[in-house]
Amino acid sequence: MSRRKRRLSAATRPRGLAPAPHEMALLLALVAVPALFNIQSGASFEPDKAAMLVSLAAVALAARLWRAWRQPQRLEITFPMVMLAGLALWAVIATLASIDLVTSVWGNYDRGYGLLVVLAGFVFLGVAWEMTRAGKGWSLVDAAILGAAIPIFYGYMQMLGLDPVRGFGISFPLGERAASTLGNPLYLGDYLLLAGVLLLARRLLQPPDAPLARHLLTLTLLLTGGLLLLTFSRSAYLGLAAAMAVFALFWWDGRRRRGEAGRLDRWVLVGALMAVGLGAAGMVILWPRLQHGGTLQQRLLIWQAVIDLLQARPRALLTGLGFDTLPLVLAPHLSPTLAHFEPDWAFRIPDRAHALPLEMVTMAGLPWLLGWAALAGWTLWRLGRRAHPLAPFLAAAILGRAALLLVSFPTHAPDLLFWAILGMALALAAAPPKAPDPWPDAVPIPLDGEAWALLAVAAWGTFGFSLSAAWPGGLWLWLLALAPLLALAYALSPPRPFAPSPIRPLALAILFLPAILLNQRIGPPALLAWIWLHGVLILTAFLPAFVRGSRLALQRALLLAVTTLALALLLTATVQRPRLGDIAYKSAWLASDPNQRDLNLHRALTLAPYDHVMAAGMAWIEAQRVEAEDAWGDEARLQGISALYQRAIAAQPLAPEPVMGYARWLARLPNAHPHALAMFDRGLALSPNDIQALNDRAMELAALGRPHDALAELQRILALDPLYGPTYGHLARVYRQLGDEDAARAILEAGRAKVPWWEPTDH
Questions:
Q1: What is the pLDDT of residues 146-158, one digit of tens each?
Q2: How far is Cα 140 from Cα 146, in angstroms, rounded to an integer?
């Protein structure tokens, strides 16, 4: 069809289809979740995204089940459907067999990657598959591209040093690496890789009619690639190289199958693969920093520890440990040299395996890994056989991300894009040979233009909520973010994107304001702000299907209000409780009044399942206040801190961190050294290679008047790891206690020579 005819048909086509609530929930997740973080949460990025994903997936599932009940349809059984059902069932079985059921269901405090998020992924994957089969695949692509507007915009603002959130301690160092709304350069690189592939497909296969719209998509594609480079994430670069190689292979094979390949195509393919291979080899071999602090060395240590753990627990090969439970049992298998990779020489327990195969096995065993590998392999095989124009893009996204995750781990916003991409790929791969193409060149009736306006406003409102606690500095940035959103909405939408009226999109923007204003304060206002945001996004999922025409019928308005309120209350009382607890936890440690701190901490421990994290964290905050106020004589406050640590230890007996924290706090008290020594012994039983704790325990021996025992222990630690700088400083301190200044000076000089990156603080 000529461009002129396409423009004429576009001008006379119907207004468009309103997406059903389950479809709108997925589209809304694609645009709003990448823009979401909450400064009022103690963990501001991943768990917030996880909670919103689960809520929107629950809305999608409920709406789809309601539709299936009202309009029963014959279910067609296919191989990927059987595989997905089996994987979902296995996820539940692995959770029931996990080492800690609570953590496996909710996920851990820092990530929130539990069973609920995994099941949400299956829901969104199924919705994407169904939408693609119904000819709405390009709507998913467009929503993913629109959702990338805020992360791209915010990433460049960070690189320019214009991030107003920096004072709250949740952004990456300004101007150093882009992290954007995803909170980490690695996560952002993963997200931009998938968004960039979809952008390329949209620009090449379904270009807009208007020249300006095409130029806007081209500019967005260039900005996406530039920001991916500015993440300086080597895993993202590896994924990009793999995606390019896969795209070249599938593109050439598709042209060969259609009889279009020539000699030039072969040379292009060979050149592209050589360039990708050389680039990847140079990146992996030459670039990694193999000296102190190198991430490659760090990952090797983590991988070895995970392998040792699996060898020690053979049952984990069958059912895994459960989702997000790895850090509860990994510590005994970690090398003490892991502390070299922390700027403060701390021994931290990784909560991820940093390699996709190991990650999947530790989560749910070998059946989980093999099941996903079989599903992906079947999908890629069918994509290659169909020789469809979109196949190279989908294959590049799937295998490019797999390469990235070989040295990384999955996170929520990239996972959401991956679920949508896999759903689209399955719809294309599972389609019978003579079935209508689920990816037609032109969709006869696109989704309603007003729905795209609602999606743009939802992304903008969510970003305003994310920046709200950084106002007034964040206000101008929020207002400025409307420009790229509107530009992309114009480029992606059908003609007259705001037809018939912009009133409802503007009304939705106003609905976000209470959440934005309330989120600037701590305590109950911050809790209410999150609940309000949650309710507005749920309402948005129903608006396109329930609201049609220039006026809203009373019956439909009541149904919409009751449905939204019921779902919002139900989800707030269930899947959103951990988020509310985390907001109350941060309100506790930000509050200056002791009574308010106690009240908010009580709310946090009542709402959230992370008792050990919150109790130990609050104990540390209170200890910092005691030190700042020089209130060591306040016995009641000291007993309160001790009670918090003891509660944390009782809440999660598998975690060594609360025990170590308690031991270090006791070591600061003048008459608690015997108790501190006992707690260090208890902690080292859980994490025997914690070299920081080993050093601290040796210094407790010195404090108890046993310097010779401390000296022998420190010399043993030095033989265990001669590159741990603080050991030299502790040895010097013990030598001074023994009155041997020459030995103290000599050991410090030896430490400077052996560990040049260590800065001694003990002179």
A1: 999 999 999 999 8
A2: 10
DSSP 532-591: HHHHHHHHHHHHHHH--SSS--HHHHHHHHHHHHHHHHHHHHTTTHHHHHHHHHHHHHH-
Cis previous bond, 594, omega within 30: no
Please return the burial class of 551, using the count of CB atoms within 10 Å of its CB with bins 0-12, 13-18 and 19+: exposed
> Is residue 752 within 8 Å of 760, Cβ to Cβ?
yes
Structure tokens at 620: 């540390």
Mean pLDDT across the stretch 748-759? 84
| Residue closest to 396 by CA, chosen among 266, 261, 260, 249 | 249
- Identify the three-state secondary structure at position 447: strand
Provide the 3-class DSSP secondary structure of residue 17.
Answer: strand
d(CA 252, CA 54): 40
Place of tokens 């009155």: 739
Distance, CA of 630 to CA of 627 (rounded, Å) = 5
Q: How many helices (H) and strands (E) does the chain have?
A: 33, 0
Burial class (CB within 10 angstroms; exposed 0-12, middle 13-18, buried 19+) of 694: buried
Predicted pLDDT at 697: 93
> Class of 578-754 per CATH?
mainly alpha
Asked whether the beta carbons of 107 and 97 are under 8 A apart, the reply is no
527-552 confidence digits (pLDDT tens) = 999 999 999 999 999 888 776 544 55
Question: Which DSSP letter does residue 448 get?
Answer: P
Q: Which residue has the tokens 């539940």?
A: 92
Pull the structure tokens for residue 499. 């037809």
CB 693 within 8 A of CB 723: no
Q: How do the domains of the chain map onto residue ranges?
A: 25-37+107-288+387-432+451-493, 578-754
State the residue for tokens 């080899």.
281
Three-class SS string for 712-741? HHHHHHHHHCCCCHHHHHHHHHHHHHCCCH
**Token pair in block for residue 430:** 């599972």
| Residue 663 zone, left/alpha/beta (φ > 0; ψ -120 to 50; rest) | alpha
The answer to whether the CB of 738 falls within 8 A of the CB of 754 is: no
Residue 437 carries which DSSP code?
P
Half-sphere exposure of 658 (CA within 13 A, CB side): 26
